[in-house]
Every structure is written in structure tokens, then in C-alpha cells.
Design brief:
Layout: E1 2-4, E2 10-12, H1 20-33, H2 35-61, H3 69-97, H4 101-107, H5 111-148, H6 158-182, H7 185-210, H8 212-221, H9 223-232, H10 245-272
Antiparallel strand pairs: 1-2
């Protein structure tokens, strides 16, 4: 089987496909091959260490302050949520900006397999960084006990860990979806930070306290607001919430809006866009 390109040349699709495991390993290696990707990962690690040091200083200087293992995990997630999604965006958009997708799709013309390999690589990155955050948080908790002499509290339950890991993965998948939709690094990064940071923490938080209708609408638009009752039993700002089927529907709807819809359109674009 072969297909004819717009230039009149043909690509043989009957040849054996590149093993999927090899494709995934190539996509993982691509993440760290560029200076931008490597330094972004280094900066993320540096920010995690900085957060740990600052937290220890606060705990050491304030006798009334305390922190648990769950608190450490939440603190370590912040640098991952801010910086590493850009890592994901670069994984998708750099190939189109630097036109290396010409080589990628020549070596593996089945574009769906390439997209799937990138998605698996992104998932592995999310899970790997979660493990790193857990390790750094555990070290921080041990140092907290040594410095302050307070009792250590290891209170990260399986539910807490599952929610933290799940929300982190959703962040990464949202970045993947937006990158696939725009195929442009500046545009994808700008839209991601608007949706992930500016709207939730600046716009939505303001509307939440100003208008009653915002408390009903916002959880449909942002998965963090929708997830808070399911994860904590309270809304995003700590007010108790009776959790029912409705809250789960809002959480699913927010994921459909921010992840599934842009991913569907973006992947379709990747599969159909003419290679130039």
C-alpha cells in the first residue's frame, strides 16, 4: 500500500511500522535533547528546591507554624504545574516551528502512531515528575522534623495521592491538547497560561466573590473549581459542599471543555494538515 503526496512522490505504508516502544523512547528523548527543554526541566527542579528551602525557613522562624507530608506534596506540585506544561507544549509545537515534522512523518507516515507516542511520553513525564515531587516532599518533611524537632506527620492517603496525580495529569493533557490545536509555541503557551492561571486565580476568583451566579457557572468552566468538592468536600475557597452526582458531572464537563474538545480538534488538525 502506498499514498501519493501533493508533490507527486509516494510513501510506502506497507513497510513494517516502527515499534511503538521505540517511538515512545524517541519522543521522551526529544524532550531533553533541546536546550530549552533541558533548562526548563532544570529550572523546575531548582524551583522545587527553592520552595523547600523557603518553607523550611518559615517553619524554623515561626514556632506556631507546622506542615505535614500532604502540605509538602501540595507545595512541590506548584512548580510542576507552572513550568512543566510548557515542556509538553514544546514537545508538540517545536517540531512544527522548526519543521522537523517533515522528518518525523517521513520516518513514520502513520501520524496517529506519532501522536499516540507523544501522548504516552507526556503521560510518563507527568507520572515521573509526580514521583520526583513526592520524593522531594518527603525529604522536606524529614528536614522539617530535624530542624524544628516537631513530630512528623505522614498523612498522604491513597485518595489524596490519586487526586494530586490526576489533576497534575489533567494539566499536562490540557497543555498537550492546546499545543495540538495551535501548533504554535507562543500561541499555545499564551492560551495555556490564560486558561490555567489568569482565569482561575484572577478572573474567576473575583467573579466568585462578586456574583452569586458565578459560583454555579465557574465549576463548569474550570476543573480545579469542579474538583475541589470531590477532593476536599469544600468548594475552591473552603466552604462545605454536599457532594453528589451533580458535582461529578461538573467535573466531567470541565474536562471535556478544557481537554477533550481541544484535543479532538487539535489531533484532527495534526492528522490532516499538509506537510510543507
Amino acid at each position: 500500500m502506498s499514498t501519493t503526496t501533493t508533490s507527486g512522490s509516494t510513501i510506502d505504508l506497507s513497510r513494517p511500522a516502527v515499534p511503538f516502544g521505540r517511538q515512545v523512547s524517541v519522543e521522551v528523548r526529544k524532550m531533553f535533547d533541546t536546550r530549552g527543554g533541558l533548562w526548563l526541566f532544570i529550572c523546575t527542579g531548582g524551583m522545587m528546591l527553592l520552595v523547600m528551602v523557603l518553607t523550611l525557613l518559615v517553619m524554623a522562624l515561626n514556632d506556631d507554624a507546622s506542615i505535614t507530608a500532604n502540605g509538602w506534596l501540595q507545595a512541590m506540585i506548584i512548580p510542576l504545574s507552572i513550568l512543566l506544561p510548557v515542556f509538553v507544549i514544546l514537545t508538540i509545537t517545536t517540531e512544527w516551528g522548526q519543521r522537523t515534522h517533515l522528518t518525523t512523518f517521513s520516518l513514520e507516515p502513520r501520524r496517529g502512531r506519532v501522536v499516540a507516542a507523544k501522548l504516552v511520553a507526556v503521560t510518563l513525564l507527568a507520572l515521573g515528575t509526580m514521583v520526583l515531587a513526592g520524593v522531594v516532599g518527603a525529604i522536606g518533611n524529614l528536614l522539617y522534623g530535624l530542624i524544628t524537632g516537631n513530630d512528623l506527620v505522614w498523612n498522604v492517603s491513597a485518595k489524596d495521592l490519586a487526586w494530586v496525580a490526576g489533576l497534575q495529569l489533567i494539566y499536562f493533557l490540557m497543555a498537550f491538547a492546546i499545543a495540538s490545536l495551535f501548533l504554535s509555541t507562543p500561541g499555545a503557551i499564551a492560551v495555556f497560561y490564560v486558561l490555567a492561571l489568569i482565569l482561575p486565580f484572577v478572573v474567576y476568583s473575583t467573579l466568585w466573590f462578586m456574583f452569586d451566579w458565578a459560583r454555579d457557572v465557574i465549576p463548569w468552566l474550570d476543573f480545579n473549581y469542579a474538583a475541589a468538592p470531590l477532593q476536599l468536600g469544600t468548594d475552591f475557597f473552603g466552604e462545605p459542599v454536599d457532594v453528589g452526582v451533580f458535582e461529578y458531572l461538573r467535573f466531567a464537563a470541565s474536562i471535556l471543555l478544557l481537554v477533550v474538545l481541544p484535543a479532538t480538534i487539535g489531533i484532527r488538525r495534526v492528522l490532516r494538515t499538509e506537510i510543507k
